[in-house]
Backbone:
C-alpha cells in the first residue's frame, strides 16, 4: 500500500519526505563587501558545524569593494552561520555567529 501511494504521488508531481527527517531549505542572504579588495570566494557553515563546504559564489561571481550580492545556500534548518571570505589578494576574513533569520543581510568584514 505504501509503495503504491508513493508511486501515485510521484506521478502527480508530488514528493514524499520521511516524517522523522529534517528538511533542508534554501536560504538567501545579501552579503556586502566592506573591504578594499574584491571577494572572490565565500564559504558558509552553520556555526556549530565548522565545515565550510563549497564556495557559494561559484567560479564567476565576485563581490567588488563596496558592492553586494545575494547568495543562496542550504540552511539545514539553522539560522546562525559562520562566513569565510577570500579576496583576490589572498586575504581571508570571517563573520562568525551571524543570525541570517534575524537579518538576511550583513557586511564582511564586520
Residues:
Amino acid at each position: 500500500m505504501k509503495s503504491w501511494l508513493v508511486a501515485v504521488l510521484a506521478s502527480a508531481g508530488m514528493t514524499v519526505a520521511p516524517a522523522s527527517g529534517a528538511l533542508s531549505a534554501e536560504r538567501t542572504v545579501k552579503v556586502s563587501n566592506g573591504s578594499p579588495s574584491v571577494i572572490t570566494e565565500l564559504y558558509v557553515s552553520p556555526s556549530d558545524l565548522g565545515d565550510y563546504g563549497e564556495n557559494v559564489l561559484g567560479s564567476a561571481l565576485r563581490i567588488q569593494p563596496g558592492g553586494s550580492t545575494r547568495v543562496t545556500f542550504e540552511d539545514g534548518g539553522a539560522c546562525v552561520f559562520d562566513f569565510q571570505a577570500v579576496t583576490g589578494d589572498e586575504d581571508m576574513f570571517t563573520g562568525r555567529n551571524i543570525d541570517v533569520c534575524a537579518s538576511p543581510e550583513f557586511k564582511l568584514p564586520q
Remarks:
- The chain has one domain: 21-108.
- The domain at 21-108 is CATH 2.60.40.2890 (Immunoglobulin-like).
- The beta strands are 26-33, 39-46, 68-74, 80-87, 92-99, 105-108.
